[in-house]
Amino acid sequence: VAQRAWLCGPPRLVIDQIKEFEARYPGLEHMMIHWAEGMGPKEFKEQISWFARDVMPAFIGRR
């Protein structure tokens, strides 16, 4: 987590981390969301739903 290989934390923090990636890598258009090892399907669905609901809207329509 300290190396920031994972996006962890509340929505605002994750949004800020993604914006830092955008600044560091101009033209970045895609990110991969990975199923964490050991996480069950129910938990993964909750996490991906949270990401879609609370993080993705900050980036929709920005081109």
Can you lay out the helices and strands and say which pair or pack?
Elements: H1 11-24, H2 41-54
Describe it for me?
The structure is a single chain. The protein has two helices and no strands. With 63 residues, it is mainly α. The protein has one domain. The radius of gyration is 12 Å and the shape is globular.
- Give the integer mean of the pLDDT values: 87
Beta percentage is under 5%
The end-to-end span amounts to 29 Å
* SSE string: HH
Task: Give me some keywords for this one.
2 helices; 63 residues; mainly alpha; 44% helix; single chain
Short synopsis of the structure:
The chain is mostly helical and 63 residues long.
